């Protein structure tokens, strides 16, 4: 994948000192576009590359904020669509905003709600104006426009808000993707115009599928709008690892050096390594917690399925050398028992490990980038993980 | 309830220094039979009166051992019936015993399994030999005798094991209860004879319903067998608070002063206060965690139902002045949201509070006993709780 690892194109940009979030590069890898950085937000700083656990409904399922912090989480994501439907952004605002509401006083990012409208809501209709849809909870007819997505996110009060984008369902022809790019650019302009909250950053989202010209057009238009950060979207909606790599290859290096870059919805260890090599800083994905609830755990030797009978009397930890709570205290045999007995603690402990695994992986990446051996780390980890 | 609060009858007993668990009375209340004490076990000491959370299948539902400890839990209960069926006591033993298995390295008590055989298992048949039944999990035909109950508990390796007793289903005539008492006494003798593990205590269980003569006969026979501690059983199987009080009134004061006294299956704040007044030291009950999972929480002003719409925008904690994690960090509005959204964290945080509430209540009782004002505390708490 040499084309993704060349030195990134520099795009000149003004000073960022008055921005609600500030990104600084602390180290660059010699053999790839990987970078180690620091994202400062109104609720603290995050060392990058970093993985953000997903707290869909204002909670990372089964984990307290203390457990998240102890496991290495430093920034979490919450879903605008879910919170706007229940309990409603006005209720969250009345309860002091997302940080007070959730008890997580570190950095928070909210998505725009668009992805859930397209994937979860009933009978979504998309026009240039916005999306109208019916709530998957109670069938209420609702509307999500760029302006409304910004208003909801301002009420929720995360440190980082996302522009409403149009992520077309795959497979999609190039024409459909091009129209989605046009709409994404137009909506980004409207989001930028609508956004007023000074203590909240707004990120643009690059769409364009695996088409270099579309990704380039989208990135350039968004960069011209001067966002606080940029996301690469539309790469975790069912495409292959190769397609993800191609989308990244034609997107990441077009994004400004001095702004954080966020790859949405990606959480496989392999994909994190690939994406960091192209210069991505931030990730989110439900995979570690969803897999965890389903007894499937990350290890450096690949996935471990905790319901497997082989673990019944296995006194060893889920992963030797892991310093997470789960591995420090509990055996595979106990974890298997919890899943067989349908005990809540099984999903909890597996989620704790999976998140800690990804945080440890990003920590190792940061270290390797500083030490100039990211390419080597990537090869070692990919080889150990297997196919 | 003056008859339950008279000074306890002293029953002479030998030295207890060579016992696996040792109980010492640190303070006695002047106005009741309440006592503050200390139970030393192979896995640490517990200040009494104390409440033990129930970890039915080797886990207090949804909580890690760290969370239990932080919330004030010092001794937990695990269920022999459940663990013998799944994963099997031999698996627990192969994984290092209950403490290593569960990651809780404080004191643990296991029940005998009898209560679950009578309440959960299918087609239980009870003879003087023991109980035969079918597993509620897979229909396997199994047998629980006094000897087998001891063998399972020795394999599990708790600090305190319980004798197999016969707890008749209510309502039961006096004849049936008398036969259950005879069987309970005979089984206690067989348990005592079978029990060999030197680092594990064995407690006897007093049955006899609300009949003073039966309770007296049972208590005397068990005391003659010289157990490390004594439980009062058969008082949380559907009878009224008045019946519980009567059973305690005729049981507790017949148990030796220098041994711990454990009231099985009782967890209502009101019942704890009543029982401590008669000289009970230990309690267990699923109520705090089961109620918690069902959004019902203890407070000094009575039960709070978290799903109530009145809490939607309530920024105040579940209980003002409570120092548990839940009350320190989260609002009633957030807790309600978690329950409405069916998020695991709701049951977790409600369970944390309910356990902390009972631990705080027992802590206040210990303090009040030391300060000679237990009767006053009891009146105050009962009055605030309401009917």
Short description:
The structure is a homodimer of 387-residue chains. With 387 residues, chain A is an alpha/beta fold.
- Beta content of chain A: 15-25%
> In angstroms, what is the radius of gyration of chain A?
20 Å
Task: State the CATH architecture of the domain at 22-285 in chain A.
Answer: Alpha-Beta Barrel
Largest interface in this structure: A-B, 41 and 41 residues
Query: Residue share in helices of chain A?
Result: 25-40%
Based on secondary structure, the structural category of chain A is: alpha/beta
Through-space gap between termini of chain A: 17 Å
Largest sheet of chain A: 8 strands, parallel, barrel
**Weakly predicted, low-confidence segments of chain A:** 1-16
By CATH, the superfamily of the domain at 22-285 in chain A comes out as: Queuine tRNA-ribosyltransferase-like
**Tell me, what's the shape of chain A?**
globular
Please write the CATH class name of the domain at 22-285 in chain A.
Alpha Beta
Number of H- or I-type helical stretches of chain A: 15
Cofactor (chains A, B): Zn(2+)
Catalytic activity (chains A, B): 7-aminomethyl-7-carbaguanine + guanosine(34) in tRNA = 7-aminomethyl-7-carbaguanosine(34) in tRNA + guanine
Binding site for Zn(2+) (chains A, B): 322, 324, 327, 353
Family (chains A, B): Belongs to the queuine tRNA-ribosyltransferase family.
Q: If you had to describe this structure to a student in words, what would you say it looks like?
A:
Chain A is of the alpha/beta class. Chain A has a domain at 22-285: Queuine tRNA-ribosyltransferase-like (TIM Barrel). In chain A, 40% of the residues lie in helices and 18% in strands. The first copy, chain A, contains 15 helices and 16 strands. Chain A has helices at residues 65-70, 80-85, 89-94, 97-102, 114-119, 146-156, 174-194, 212-225, 241-249, 269-277, 287-293, 325-329, 332-340, 345-370, 374-385, and strands at residues 22-28, 35-41, 44-48, 50-55, 76-78, 108-110, 122-126, 131-134, 141-144, 160-162, 201-206, 229-232, 261-263, 282-285, 296-297, 304-305. In chain A, the strands form 4 sheets. The first copy, chain A, has an 8-stranded parallel barrel with strand order 4-5-6-10-11-12-13-14, surrounded by 5 helices. In chain A, strands 1-2-3 form a 3-stranded antiparallel beta sheet. A 3-stranded antiparallel beta sheet of chain A has the order 7-8-9. In chain A, strand 7 (122-126) and strand 8 form a beta hairpin. In chain A, helix 7 (174-194) packs parallel to helix 8, helix 10 (269-277) runs parallel beside helix 14 and helix 13 packs across helix 14. The longest helix of chain A has 26 residues, at 345-370. The model of chain A is unreliable at 1-16 (pLDDT under 50).
């Amino acid at each position: 994948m040499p084309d993704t690892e060349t030195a990134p194109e520099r795009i000149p940009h003004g000073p960022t000192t008055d921005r609600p979030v500030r990104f600084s590069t602390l180290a660059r890898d010699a053999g790839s576009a990987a970078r180690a950085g620091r994202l400062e937000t109104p609720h603290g700083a995050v060392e990058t590359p970093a993985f953000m656990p997903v707290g869909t409904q204002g909670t990372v399922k089964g984990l307290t904020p203390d457990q998240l912090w102890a496991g290495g989480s430093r920034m979490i994501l919450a879903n605008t669509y879910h919170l706007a439907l229940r309990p409603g952004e006005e209720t969250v605002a009345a309860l002091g905003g997302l940080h007070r509401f959730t008890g997580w006083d570190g950095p928070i990012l909210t998505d725009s709600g668009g992805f859930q409208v397209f994937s979860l809501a009933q009978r979504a209709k998309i026009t240039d104006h916005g999306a109208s849809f019916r709530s998957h909870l109670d069938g209420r007819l609702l509307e999500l426009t760029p302006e409304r997505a910004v208003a909801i996110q301002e009420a929720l009060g995360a440190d980082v808000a996302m522009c409403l984008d149009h992520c077309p369902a795959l497979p999609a022809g190039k024409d459909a993707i091009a129209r989605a790019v046009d709409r994404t650019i137009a909506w980004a302009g409207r989001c930028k115009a609508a956004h007023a909250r000074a203590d909240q950053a707004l990120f643009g989202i690059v769409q364009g599928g695996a088409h270099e010209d579309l990704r380039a057009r989208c990135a350039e238009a968004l960069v011209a709008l001067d966002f606080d950060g940029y996301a690469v979207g539309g790469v975790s909606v069912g495409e292959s690892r190769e397609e993800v790599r191609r989308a990244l290859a034609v997107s990441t290096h077009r994004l400004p050096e001095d702004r954080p870059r966020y790859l949405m919805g990606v959480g496989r260890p392999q994909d994190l390594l690939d994406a960091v090599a192209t210069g991505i800083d931030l990730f989110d994905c439900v995979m570690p917690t969803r897999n965890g609830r389903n007894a499937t755990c990350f290890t450096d030797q690949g996935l471990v399925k905790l319901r497997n009978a082989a673990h019944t009397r296995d006194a060893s930890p889920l992963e030797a050398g892991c310093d997470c709570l789960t591995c420090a205290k509990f055996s595979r045999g106990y974890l298997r028992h919890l899943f067989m007995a349908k005990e809540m603690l099984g999903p909890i402990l597996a989620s704790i490990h999976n998140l800690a695994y990804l945080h440890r992986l990003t920590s190792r990446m940061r270290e390797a980038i500083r030490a100039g051996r990211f390419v080597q780390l990537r090869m070692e980890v990919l080889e150990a993980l297997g196919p």
